[in-house]
Design goal:
The complex is a heterodimer of chains A (286) and B (267). Chain A is an all-alpha fold. Helix content of chain A is 69%, strand content 1%. Chain A has a two-stranded antiparallel sheet. In chain A, helix 3 packs across helix 6, helix 6 runs antiparallel to helix 9 and helix 9 runs antiparallel to helix 11. Chain B is globular, with a radius of gyration of 23 Å. Chain B has a domain of 180 residues: Orthogonal Bundle (MetI-like fold), CATH 1.10.3720.10. Chain B contains 11 helices and no strands. Chain B has 267 residues and is mostly helical. In chain B, helix 3 packs parallel to helix 6. Chains A and B meet through helix 2, helix 3, helix 4, helix 5 and helix 6 of A and helix 1, helix 3, helix 4, helix 5 and helix 6 of B.
Chain lengths: 286, 267
């Protein structure tokens, strides 16, 4: 089920786009209106909230509209260690996850390609975690792992890697499944070593899968607050920016702070993603 | 005899380790649904018991939360599937100004951390003075489900051969007939897959839900809140039921599609 969205085995048929604009408009209008109202508008509300100032009454959670840009400066000054930590955790977890996921995707997409039954079973095993609550699975790790390990940087990274492996494997599998093995054979026929063939043929051809797999995990990881929370795999010194946004919004009701941090997080992610996509030459993906 | 080669063994070994890594916690969750109840915590193994399975609603709130999650999942999936399918058809079949903007609008939610989506919606509900509850959870879930439905259905629409619909029109079918009798049935596998994906995403969502639920509880929120004092084994029972149900469903779908491929290969 989940992998039908990624496996991409359906071949695209040449479509002659029609021009009857009003039908397209009717089809698009309700969905687009929904997205404008519940996806785009909240960003503006977030921006407005991030500039609010405390109300005169001084009550908890009481703020008034203002243009207090200093909120951003305060947020950065107070929480830059959490921001930095979030990106170090997510980057480490993405790299470790890639090293684990790529061989698994290769196994399923290339090695067992000619055994559809086995391939089907392995794919089901990869998506199986989606069918059972990720919170319970993360708590299960807390019970399985030695207690000295819990609450460290490593246990949080361990949890992040664990929770996002399927999101990496599926796009990489889709790329590797589409890899034409004749190209690999041609490479070795021309006396390239297996390592060279991998570096010059397999890796570049599976790049789209690597790029989307790493993005699909890096982005949600950087905003995650479950793994790093103290009830799960985190401890006193592991709070990520997600934890800070959550506690500011839902517990101390410091909405402007939570909103400013959300916007800062989003801005950093946009910069990282844009740079990464450009560097990896995968602009067509977006 | 073939020589053992590290290069050949590397992929299967790492792959197997990765699978064990993925599956071990699932086994733990299922196993601990059979744990004998002793005190609040379900962390130490006390012995095998069927008690939790005989009484899956035995812990306070757990079934209410579970029911809420199903309600939210079904409503959000139905709305998102209808709206998302319409968008997917428009994106593949029609040329219009701003097509790439629409694509970007639908792609961005998937590339936004959930905490930002959650906080944004919560800020909006706060400014608009809307009280948070089941309704706001549904509104939030529908939003991110639409994106995933569009991606999943778009692939299916792109693989549809328009010649079949043209044949229908040539045989004097009205546009309505062509849509209901040809287009929709041919899109069905993609739409069903998208709906299942959407339900799974909604059912397991915690981060966005936590920001927009107010006092309402869903199954993931129940687990998060009880994590502090110990999650009752009944949560493991309900999660295991969902797990085996979904697994059975996916295995059936896989079998059907493998059989279909075999039949097509033969003919």
């Amino acid at each position: 089920m989940a992998f039908t969205a990624f496996s991409g085995n359906a071949k695209a048929v040449e479509q002659a786009p029609k021009k009857r604009g009003w039908i397209a408009l009717v089809l698009l209008a309700p969905g687009i209106a929904y997205m404008l109202l519940f996806f785009v508008a909240p960003f503006f509300q977030l921006a407005l909230t991030s500039l609010q100032a405390p109300a005169e009454s001084g009550g908890i959670g009481q703020y008034v509209a203002a243009a207090q840009f200093s909120n951003y400066w305060v947020a950065l000054q107070e929480y830059w260690p959490h921001l930095l930590r979030s990106f170090i955790y997510s980057l480490s977890a993405t790299i470790i996850g890639l090293l684990i996921s790529y061989p698994l995707a290769y196994l399923i997409g290339v090695k067992v390609r000619h055994r559809p039954m086995l391939q089907g079973i392995l794919l089901i095993l990869v998506v199986a975690p989606f069918f059972i609550s990720f919170l319970l699975r993360t708590l299960a790790w807390k019970a399985i792992l030695p207690s000295e390990f819990i609450g460290t940087h490593f246990s949080v990274i361990f949890g992040l890697v664990y929770n996002f492996i399927p999101f990496m494997v599926l796009p990489m599998f889709a790329s590797l499944q589409a890899l034409d093995l004749r190209l690999v054979e041609a490479g070795s026929d021309l006396y390239a070593s297996p390592a060279t063939v991998f570096r010059k043929v397999t890796l570049p051809l599976s790049m789209p899968g690597i790029v989307s797999g790493t993005l699909l995990s890096f982005i949600p990881m950087s905003g995650d607050y479950v793994n790093a929370s103290r009830e799960f795999l985190g401890g006193t010194g592991t709070a990520m920016i997600g934890n800070v946004i959550e506690s500011n919004f839902l517990q101390t009701q410091n909405y402007p702070m939570a909103a400013a941090l959300s916007i800062i997080l989003m801005a950093i992610i946009l910069i990282i993603v844009a740079t990464y996509v450009r560097k990896s030459g995968a602009e067509d993906l977006l | 005899m073939r020589k053992f080669s590290l290069g050949k063994a590397f992929v299967p070994i790492v792959g197997t380790i990765a699978l064990i890594y993925l599956l071990l916690p699932i086994a733990h969750v299922v196993l601990f649904s059979f744990n004998e109840k002793r005190g609040r915590n379900n962390i130490i193994w006390n012995g095998f018991s069927l008690e939790n399975w005989q009484n899956p609603c035995g812990a306070p709130q757990v079934c209410t939360a579970f029911g809420n999650s199903i309600l939210v999942g079904v409503v959000a999936t139905v709305i998102a599937t209808v709206l998302g399918t319409m968008i997917a058809i428009a994106l593949v079949r029609y040329k219009f100004k701003g097509r790439s903007t629409v694509s970007l609008l639908l792609f961005t939610p998937m590339a936004t951390p959930e905490v930002v989506l959650g906080a944004g919606l919560a800020a909006q509900f706060l400014l608009a003075g809307v009280e948070k509850g089941i309704g706001t959870i549904i509104l939030a879930h529908t939003m991110f489900c639409i994106s995933y439905v569009v991606v999943a259905v778009k692939a299916r629409v792109a693989s549809l051969n328009p010649a079949i619909e043209e044949a229908g029109r040539d045989l004097y079918a009205s546009p309505g007939q062509v849509f209901w009798r040809i287009t929709l049935p041919m899109l069905a596998p993609g739409i069903i897959g998208a709906a299942l994906l959407s339900f799974a995403l909604s059912f397991d969502d915690f981060i966005i839900t936590n920001f927009n639920s107010g006092t309402a509880t869903t199954f993931p929120k129940f687990i998060y809140v009880s994590a502090l004092k110990g999650v009752p084994a009944q949560a493991n029972v309900l999660a295991s039921i969902v797990f085996f149900g979904a697994l059975a469903l996916v295995i059936i779908v896989q079998m059907v599609s493998i059989n279909k491929q075999k039949r097509m290969a033969r003919s």
